[in-house]
Design goal:
The protein has 1 helix and 8 strands. By secondary structure, it is mostly beta strands. The longest helix has 15 residues.
């Protein structure tokens, strides 16, 4: 087991311990059309995960006044069973939040957690 795998386990444990409310993430992947029948609708794949996460007001150091403003929230969450992206839908206690930015932690290498900025 490598260093980042261990750090991922530590992050998962800490986020589980301090989890706040129910936070879920949903990713919808469009189906692949059949090249012989491209007019036939495809069925998208939907993946949903309940996250070990913390939710709080955005820290001042992230506020830039354009993309991220001081009235928003930041959600730090453990790595789900899929790679999240900006098209994913985050929900806090059943309320869908608009994701404005998503950052893997660390920025390069093996991801141990994610930090998402959402409109409150």
């Amino acid at each position: 087991m490598g260093f980042y795998d261990e750090m991922r386990g530590v992050a998962d444990d800490l986020l589980s311990e301090f989890a706040q409310g129910t936070v879920t993430i949903t990713k919808v992947t469009p189906g692949t059309p059949d090249p012989d029948q491209p007019w036939v609708p495809t069925t998208p794949t939907t993946e949903t995960a309940t996250l070990a996460a913390t939710v709080r007001r955005v820290e001042q150091k992230y506020v830039d006044g354009t993309l991220i403003v001081g009235t928003e929230e930041q959600i730090m969450f453990a790595v789900p069973g899929f790679v999240p992206d900006m098209a994913c839908e985050l929900s806090v206690n059943g309320r869908v939040r608009v994701m404005k930015d998503l950052r893997p932690i660390p920025a390069a290498g093996t991801t141990v957690a994610y930090l998402a900025f959402v409109a409150a």
